[in-house]
Predict the structure.
Amino acid sequence: MNLILRVFFTAALTGVFFVQAHEVLAQPQSQRELNGFALGQHNSAIKAAFKKLYDERRTEDGWIYRTYLISEKPFVYMSFKFPADDIDHAVSIQIAGDPTKRMLPFLGLKLGASAEDVRRQIGRPSETTQLTDPPVEVWTYQGRNYSFELDKVKGLSSIQVFGYQGFGEPPGLPTPWPEVRSRLLSNDVTQLMTTFAADAEIYHGRDVYGIDNSLWTVLSDSKSKFRRGLALVVLAIQDDRAREPGEANLRISRNQPVRHVYKFRPGSPVEEIVLTPHAGAFRVWEIRLR
């Protein structure tokens, strides 16, 4: 059986013979996550989540596209794109192939869903593009970062999130400390997924607890390295000396976003907690424990 591997390209779609625009209603907001992975995840974490690299392509302008197999039967793969100015962090996530149960739902959809299922869950696309190789129809939505490919026989054959269109700017002020504290104490994986940056790290002495798999896998496994670090954070912020930060200030670095830092007083088991703006919200990026 000939397996067709096709990855969305940034600049143009090949094999197009017509594009059709549609009047659209409000669709779900742009999405940061797909099949457990989050935009901004580090290449090392993505690599660790799969057994081996299936395909790698480099564009003339310096982008890197990496593809990994989820399974051969049914044939399902995931592709990640890394931009030339930051080849360590994924700016696009795609899952494609045959219908499978081995994926997390995306806005209520899985590969193999019908076109009617997609319309019901997402709404009518603002634009459709017909491709000839392979023969699929691409559905895109104005102001949203997700798109779908539909095969006339297999139904939904690809889902992609690309970039940060539709997220908007993060709030002018950082997340209030009581809310940050409440989120860190939560055991709800869905809430934790929105709380942490995709490359978050926890420091305790010489130990570093980072994201070393898909964000969902790491946060849903109480025995993962990151969750072990988070358990230390939970204990620390329940200490009376860490009930409130001593001050809040900004961290400004060249070629980096402006981050907000909650600093704790000497003697507290927490040194600082850093929030970074990402995908329209402030997220916990770094925690340092004493």
User: Anything to note?
Assistant: Confidence is low (pLDDT under 50) at residues 8-24.
